[in-house]
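Lecture notes, unit on protein representations.

Consider one protein chain, 339 amino acids long.
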Amino acid sequence: MNGDIEDEHIEPRRKRRRWPVVLLTVIAVVSTGCLVMVLGTSGPGVGHFRTPAGRQTYTEAYAAAFAALPKPTETRDVETTFGTVRAYAWVNPDPVDDVPVVLVPGRASGVPMWGENLRDFVEHRTVYAFDAIGDSGLSEQTLPLRGMDDNARWVEEALAGLGLDRIHLVGHSQGGGLAAAVAVRHPDRLASLTLLEPIMTFGVLPAWAIGWSAVATLPFLPDSWRDHALNRIGGVEDDEVDPEDPMARMIAAGTAHFDSSSLPTPSRLSDEQIRSLRMPVYVAIASDKSLAGGEDAAERAELLPRATVKVWPKTTHSLPMQVAAELDAELERFWADVR
């Protein structure tokens, strides 16, 4: 009897959830990104793996994370002015229409970040996704990116190289900021634009994120302290994150072994630039721990001429993974309405 009573008072072990590990992408947003803004850099460089052994560690982790995705129909390396873009296609033989979806990943996360969303997307449409030049992934940078003009240019050149004339462009986090830059500079290919928690687009990074990012990037900081700082950024407890998750291991390997410090930080759009985006735009903002600017960013996004803006309740910066099924269904309705 005593044993039964004692069991009743045992606190259940907190279940580890998969989605918070993707908040490790915040490393690039609030550590590399913020520190670049705060401390400055020595000038543009070329993203690279620091050692051959580091590259091998990363590619093995990337392969493990990529294995969770549907098998792509095609894998291509597309030449651009700034390097070679690793691109994947999932061709739907019977799509709902002829406009494909193109996915731009967040910082340090690459194509595997779309694992929670991709199956829903390919059920209805042909989908393309690529690793970003200048960031960890399988793309190869050869020339420096000297600002967001160059950053947007390689995306435009990759789209041209893939023969994509009209697309639904989707970006998350820093990839959202990049997608917005493409829309401002090269709008003609875009049937629509989807921005999921886009950093430095409608708002600014919050002060609490900058503070924790400074902690997370201190030299010689014990790993446990760094992990705690990153988890605070993500709004999760330390025991909620599974470090052995393939995505977590890939992101950790990328941030440890790839130097992406010269990657341009997305620019905050001016009111004039926002109003210039005439294509339908879907903007998703997190209700909690938003790195896109929260309610203020959502309000400013309403300046878009053809805006669909939603603050998703009970979500953080990992919004696309947290509410994948609901978001994917809503995006399919959004794309289906584009004319």
